[in-house]
Amino acid sequence: MAPERRQVHRFRIARLARDPVPAFTAAAMTTIVGGTVVTPDGAVEADVVIDGSRLAEVAKGARRVGEVIDAAGCFVLPGGVDPHCHLMDDFRAATRAALSGGTTTVLSYTNPASGESDLDGFRRRVAELESGAFVDVGLHAMVFDPEHIAGGDLRAFRQGGAAAFKLFLSYRELGIECSTKRLVELMRLATETDLTVQVHCENGAMIEALVEDAVSRRQTGVRPFVETRPAETEEEAVAQSLAAASLTRATCYLVHLSSRRAVEQVRLARRREPRDSHGSPRSPRPARFLAEVCLHHLVFDDGVYDGPAADRYLVAPPLRSPDDVEALWEALSDGTIDTVGSDHSQRPTPLPRELSEPDRRLYYGLAGVGARLPVLLSEGLARSLPLERLVEVSAAAPARIFGLYPRKGALAPGSDADLVIWDPAGETLVTERSFDDGTGDSIYRGRLLRGRVRDVLVHGLRLVADGELVREEPIGRFVSSSAGRLG
Q: CA-CA distance, 119 to 113, in Å (whole number)?
């Protein structure tokens, strides 16, 4: 989604501690016994020894030290890493929801305020990260002014801890659309600064033509918004982005892909990259094509737009056909999709006024940072995806792509002691209290999920026990893209 530009909101803030965890939150030693641990090498029956905020040992029959947590019958998973969030309006509520759902690291975008440069907006957001965060927070730089961003700005993003910056191929009405020429130029600069280029793939010119046609016929409301952003607009923008990445040898990360057409473009681009007889890239620095899907595009289809609460499901790109949903699951299973995010919107964006209904203003953008991991585990296992694959796309791969691995997204000696004890025999009924992020009624309310997030530990501290938040201790810190190194 594309949050609108806003004035700077002033509020009392404090900078998050970077590393190590502040002494007043330091955990004692803990041993988790009897569970099946999903490690980088697969699922094994093992015990996990935690020394302070780090994992000390993962081994069968490890010596029990400190507090002992019985995980018999459960899986021990690395804490989730959500690669795609918009949290800046209320870190405390959003990260509390993330914690309740087993996500222990969130990566959020840094929208600049009105009249503020992209770099100044990024620097302000780093400095203003609220001390009330319950989980760790990393930042992606948002580029709202692509024509004026320079190589020095990109280097400053990198030095400031970002691993990526985001461009939009639509939203000319907001003044943030990136031209094709500038897309190529910025991808070339990104290769020089070791930054990943994230792209919101919708063809803005096509959408504008469709909106003008809808307005000429006096169409407003949910369906016109959805129908002016069809899969063809995404397919064209994906192809454009992948071609630009191939030309510049950039690392291109396509956010929230939603359609069969889009994932087919990713497969095609990967097949086209020149390789030698052993299957290795011929170029010393090949382009990288990375793809993300968001939870709502896996769970819902466009049939909800015919229901009585259609406006609750507005998002860009919109929900697609059942066939597109199946295509996304296939791409998740076969490795075409690399990560699963939430695209959590702490404050949604208003529809263009010409498409809003005359008697009410409509908004788009969905909340889901808390639901992401438990819903993905339930739905994925129901479709026979291996648990290890679900952990890869929800934790390990996002951490690896954005420079946090193996400190995040892995259960191995030296990793941060951020983990989830998940009970596969349990059930979770999503209620209005399940993932309270302050955004109102969840679109996932009423779903009965297989499995239950039983316990969640952050930096070795058990903050969730038996499904309930037991410690009101917001210990989250800012994590930079260089945080993955151990030692």
A: 11
